């Protein structure tokens, strides 16, 4: 089906390679034009600006922040691996875990524990991937500002779509997920 011909599943446009010149393959194409910002610029906002330094000055909804602490905050990943993919960041601009203060480390840990409880309650996930990529060579997309990933996982969330199609299916909108997590966050920890 060609994009724009009304085809697709659930309003999502797909294309079949057999509709084009060259050697067709068995794959359909799911267009995700919103990803061009990430592909072209590497991050949003401009690469000279740190999004983790800019986010706390913004409105929580616009910045996708779900909770704020004294030394660190929690926000949704703008380019999530799964719905509910959170990042826990210190306010202070430091690149690596060994540069964080004891207070920052303690609050990152505490916010991570709370995030796990909130995600388990709101998304009914079966587990988590938690980790930090320290340095660009280790896979950090934003290497200059420490951040910990918290990715909810479900027993049946793996499929071949990301591997073969190079696309991740996210069943929920970021704004909806942010609102649900923020509303479920314990008020004593906002």
Give a written overview of the molecule.
Keywords: Nucleotide-binding. Residues 51-160 form the HIT domain. With 190 residues, the chain is α+β, with helices and mostly antiparallel strands. It has one domain (49-189): HIT-like (HIT family, subunit A), CATH 3.30.428.10. The chain contains 6 helices and 7 strands. It is globular. Residues 1-9 have low confidence and may be disordered.
What does the secondary structure layout of this molecule look like, with pairings?
Layout: E1 14-16, E2 28-30, H1 36-41, H2 51-54, H3 60-63, E3 65-68, E4 72-76, E5 86-90, H4 102-123, E6 127-131, E7 148-153, H5 161-165, H6 174-184
Antiparallel strand pairs: 1-2, 3-4, 4-5, 5-7, 6-7
Tell me the name of the CATH class: Alpha Beta
Query: How many individual β-strands?
Result: 7
Q: Label the CATH architecture.
A: 2-Layer Sandwich
Largest sheet, strands/sense/barrel: 5 strands, antiparallel
Number of helices: 6
Q: Work out the count of structural domains.
A: 1
Q: Per the principal axes of the C-alpha atoms, what is the gross shape?
A: globular
The CATH H-level superfamily is HIT-like
Decide which structural class fits the backbone: alpha+beta
Give the H and E element order.
EEHHHEEEHEEHH
Query: Could you tell me the mean pLDDT?
Result: 79
Q: Which strand-content bin applies to the residues?
A: 15-25%
List keywords for this structure.
27% helix; two-stranded antiparallel sheet; disordered N terminus; single chain; globular; 190 residues; alpha+beta; HIT family, subunit A; 6 helices; 5-stranded antiparallel β-sheet
